[in-house]
Design goal:
Largest sheet: none
Organism: Kibdelosporangium banguiense
InterPro entries: DUF6069
Protein name: PEP-CTERM protein-sorting domain-containing protein
Structural class: mainly alpha
Distance between the termini: 48 Å
Keywords: Membrane, Transmembrane, Transmembrane helix
Number of helices: 4
Radius of gyration: 19 Å
Pfam families: DUF6069 (PF19545)
Shape: elongated
Number of strands: 0
Length: 144
């Protein structure tokens, strides 16, 4: 009789590695985002409008951003003829588009420092997540 007890564990290992690595990316992103929020808090004037700089506000959005980015990476990896070329354009574009709400709160009365801190948080998440995804969901070489 053939022993298949280890087969299921090996089948799920890539999913566990992906989940664990993304969890570490989320923790690292939240820690660095907390540092940004604390620094911004030191500079922001007392009594001024503060938006998005509390962990209850940015931590869930950090995780959501990582998960959405991972989904996009996965879809492009599976469907694009040249995934590296697509992501080389799409990742910076997505980060730039993520600045939209930050500019919106600036227009709504938040300080420039507040908005800049939120923009820095988006960059941090991308800087941490992209190399993680490149490692756990590697891209095939683009055809010539």
């Amino acid at each position: 009789m053939t022993d298949t007890s280890g087969l299921q564990a090996r089948t799920h290992q890539p999913a566990l590695v992906l989940a664990g690595t993304l969890a570490l990316a989320a923790v690292a992103s939240i820690v660095l985002n907390t540092g940004i929020a604390l620094l911004a808090g030191l500079v922001l004037p007392d009594g001024g409008v503060r938006m998005g700089l509390q962990p209850i506000e940015y931590a869930p959005l950090t995780v959501a951003g990582i998960l959405l980015g991972t989904l996009g990476w996965y879809v492009i990896r599976r469907t694009a003829r040249k995934p590296r070329a697509v992501l080389r354009v799409l990742v910076p574009l997505a980060v730039l588009l993520s600045f939209g709400p930050d500019l919106g709160i600036l227009a709504a009365g938040a300080s420039f420092v507040n908005s800049l801190a939120l923009m820095a948080m988006h960059v941090i998440v991308a800087v941490i997540t992209v190399p993680v995804l490149a490692r756990v969901l590697p891209l095939p070489a683009d055809p010539a």
